[in-house]
Amino acid sequence: MWGCQRDAGQRAGGGGADVHAGSVIADTVDTGLIRSQWEEMLRLAASLKYGHTTASLVVGKLHAASRRSAIAQALVEFGGLQRTIYALRYLADEAYRRRITRQLNKGEALHSLRRDLFFAHEGSVRRRHHEQQTEQALCLSLVVNAITIWNTAYLELALARLAEHRGRIDRDLLAHISPALMEHVNPYGTYEFPVEAEYTRTGFRPLRDPGTT
């Protein structure tokens, strides 16, 4: 198995990526142990799928024993096999790596938005009680969701206008767009929310001309 993994890593590197898989994939999988415990693993998976037990309970039971049981060892080996398959696919498929990178960038953009909004007390939760800490976290989630929805709605309008002037937009380019934008948001100061006035508002605000400030 190690030889197959090394060759796949070299092929990935030959395809344009400088990949050294040896430091990442350097062990073998006991497939015999997986085969011997396969029926028990299926029973365990079925119990989890149909709600007869919980993942936390299973993990607790597996770690409670002084010696690792055969099924626990088989699960570790099966996990190693799944990670190997994923690593080989990641190393061999450049398009797959690019897609994962795009998703990671979007996740980092969302984390950055949360950090920018959670600037008070240098981003630390200083409430003592769990209920107050939960309220603070929920308030942050509410603001982040509101900004994300706002950005999504107006990005759709902006893209529609751009398509009117320049024609069809390549969908591959749209995959790089994230609604976690912060440049137009001022997190400082005091805000007023005239709820009654917003009830009478219809439609969206007009889009700004890119040539104006």
Order of helices and strands: HHHHHHHHH
Total domain modules: 2
Please give the radius of gyration in angstroms: 25 Å
- The helix content, as a percent range, equals 55-70%
What structural category characterises the helix and strand content?
mainly alpha
Describe the main β-sheet briefly. none
Strand percent estimate: under 5%
Explain how this protein is built.
This protein is mainly α. The chain has 2 domains: 2-92, no CATH class; 101-200, no CATH class. Helices cover 63% and strands 0% of the residues. It is built from 9 helices and no strands. It has helices spanning 2-14, 31-36, 38-49, 55-64, 70-92, 94-117, 130-166, 171-174, 195-200. The radius of gyration is 25 Å and the shape is extended. Mean pLDDT is 81; it is low at 1-17.
Characteristics of this structure?
213 residues; mainly alpha; 2 domains; 9 helices; 63% helix; extended; disordered N terminus
